[in-house]
Amino acid sequence: MGKILGIGLWVCIVTLGAVYGSIYLATAPAGPSEDEAKKAALELVRGEPITIPVLAGGDVQGYFLTRISFMMDKEKVKTQAPPVTEMMTDELFTLLVGNKMVDIANVGTFDVMAFREKIKTEMNARLGEGMVDQVMIEQLDYVSKDAARKAADGAPGPMEKTTVVEGEKIEEKPASGH
Length: 178
Description:
This protein has six helices and five strands, in the order H-H-E-E-E-H-H-H-E-H-E. The chain is of the alpha+beta class. It starts with a helix and ends in a 13-residue tail after the last strand.
């Protein structure tokens, strides 16, 4: 009789332990997802507004007004010796000056995704592979030489421009201390 009571008690303890373990594991908070972990490893680096001349036939035809920001690897940003924003501006200017980026007569044919991928590839080639994760175009407008000249001469009203890409709105976050 003692053996049967011992076996019954042992079965009850094992069953309760199994039920407790399965409930505990089922309700345990999941670790950060892969996307959350990736986002946590990235930092927004705001680009500077830059003006890029559009050259054709040895003459300036107009200007692209652009501001491009990047989601970059936090750890790699910290290891860069020169300021990252200035390096990005220099690389963007080098990459984009002289390149026929957009057919102004047909802005609708502009491939935004290919443009972003080209910038990402070129920036990673210069700054180090994996440095730039995402390219965000905040502004990409075209201003003809005549419109720029009128604005410089003090013409009333806003400057005439062609919006090539509706920019992404990037929310400002407090500086992370560097």
